[in-house]
Each structure stands twice: as C-alpha cells, then as structure tokens.
Write a structure and sequence with these properties.
This protein is of the alpha+beta class and 145 residues long. It is 23% helix and 21% strand. It starts with a strand and ends in an 11-residue tail after the last strand. The model has no long low-confidence stretch (mean pLDDT 93).
Length: 145
C-alpha cells in the first residue's frame, strides 16, 4: 500500500483538556458497530452511564448542551478515563485524522478544524510537503462510505 501524508502529520498530538475548543462538542458523534457491540458488553460501575448516554437506535452519543455526554467539565472524556483508550469508537480515535483510500493508495491528512492542527500549520516556516512511502501487508478498510 502506498501512503501519502503531509510532512507535519506526525507532529500532531491531541492536547485534550488544554485545547481551546473541544472536538467533543457541537456535532453528533456516531459510533461504529464494533464499538457499540463492545459498549453493550461493558460491566462494572461505568455500565449504567454508558447505557444511558448512547442513542442506541442512531448509534450516536447523546449530547447535553451541545456537548458529548462523556465530556466532563475539564474537557476530558470520562469514557476514556473509565475504560481506557481502546474503548473509543472509530470517530473518537481518528479525529482530526482523515483517510482517503483508492486502489492501493491511502492518503492521510489532518483536519484544520482542530485548533492544534491549525496551530501546527500556522507556525510552519516552510511550505507544506507531502511525503510518500510504501508499506507491505497493510490491511485495507472493510467498509467505505
């Protein structure tokens, strides 16, 4: 598989609660089927909150005052805190990363709607370059929208 990424791609790291504008507010967060199946199997003290914070019919997280039901007052994810990084749905794991794939090419970019990505871009002194490399044996996505 041939990959193309912007030269600043690996500079990005989510700054979570330090971010001036959280990505967990203002839009509907849809969970993938695999994540929803995991959520149904959760046991322990977080189970009740998890069950009542998801719109199971639509497969999305509920919002309160336009904020994800799992987003706490420090702009951190209570699901991440309670269940760990592996509990996150594909949307939450990926954003602001964006992947386009066609034939044997995978293009990976970062959305400038993320303030940290925008900061990285604005502080660049040189024009953005795109890097291309090849990885053997990469599995392809099963579903595309």
């Amino acid at each position: 598989m041939l990959y193309t990424i912007p030269d600043y791609y690996h500079e990005f790291s989510c700054i979570a609660g330090e971010c001036e504008d959280t990505c967990c507010a203002g839009w509907q967060i849809v969970a993938d089927e695999a994540a929803l199946k995991k959520y149904k199997k959760v046991t322990g003290s977080f189970r009740k909150r998890l069950r009542k914070s998801i719109n199971w019919k639509e497969g999305s997280f509920l919002q309160y005052h336009h904020r994800c039901a799992f987003l706490n007052d420090e702009n951190l994810c209570d699901m991440y805190t309670a269940l760990g990084e592996k509990s996150l749905c594909r949307t939450c794991k990926m954003y602001p990363r964006h992947v386009e794939e066609f034939e044997d090419v995978r293009e990976m970019t970062l959305s400038v709607s993320c303030p940290e990505v925008a900061r990285i871009l604005m502080e660049k002194k040189e024009p953005v370059r795109f890097l291309t490399y090849e990885k053997e044996g990469e599995e392809e996505y099963e579903e595309f929208d």
